[in-house]
Fold these 2 entries.
Entry 1:
Amino acid sequence: MSTRFLTADELSAIDKWYVIDAADQVLGRVATKAATILIGKHRPQYAPFLVSGDHVIILNADKIKLTGLKLDSKMYRHHTLYPGGLREVAARKMYATNPDRMIREAVLGMLPKNKLRKRMVKRLKVYFGGQHPHSAQQPSEIKL
């Protein structure tokens, strides 16, 4: 019995769009659901070597919650690639300035670390308010 995988064109023809409302939701739960959809594990046509996932729109990024003491103790780190260039930003400051980056980094950490990662994260759209410009794609809403 042979297994037939769909081509990239066939997969893009059946792409869907999903909306996740992040208002009063926990960051990790929203990121997990978004990463699962972006990877494509929710589909029977899943293939680990193809971008078989769908598009995800996350709304109300500024109303997301962090549990426990994460708002005070969690640090976001990146390096500028210069000597002594380690930069740290506390979660409270990141939440105040750009919470969409918090969601994007949480989802990015859950995606596979391979060549498909950049193409998967391009399908993620994060917005502050409750509106988005993708109504023409007729996205379906996901309840968490």
Entry 2:
Amino acid sequence: MKFNELIENVKGWSTAKELDKASPLSQMLKLNEEWGELNSATVRKDKEKVADSIGDMMVVLTILAQQMGFTKIHLALNPDENGQHNYYYVDEWSVEVLYLHIAKEIGLIANSLIAISTNLSRINSRTQIQLSSRNIAIYLMFVAQKFDLTLTECLEVAWNEIKNRQGKIVDGVFVKTADLEEVRDGKQ
């Protein structure tokens, strides 16, 4: 499947689950969760989990973009269409350096969400979220390459995992059916 098709599929899935209307603050929790899983998979050198985690982060960024009301999400998140050619020097960076940049961008998104939620600066903050999401996608593309993967392959792994997933939104976060009992029991 092509990258833009996968993004459109994720958007459709998100809309069907009404995640597109949930809080970006809750989506930030999911971004941090998937970020942690990517770090864990990298430390363990688990290529399959790296692919899944990169794809999951792209899913989360897509949904976050929907929640923020951004248009042309596929253009912002597709490194082939969003200026990744300006990052030619990144090939020389280690995975660890790429991860430092991703962590910085996640922090910038968090800072922008704070500004939006406290009504400090909505316009500049929205722009920063778009820019940081784009940068994360680019850095994830380079991380995928370090593991002999493509960003499209990673997104397809995640899409194939979620496309038939059932569950419900709990506190603004989609929880798959298998995890709902843990959430009810307060174990998560």
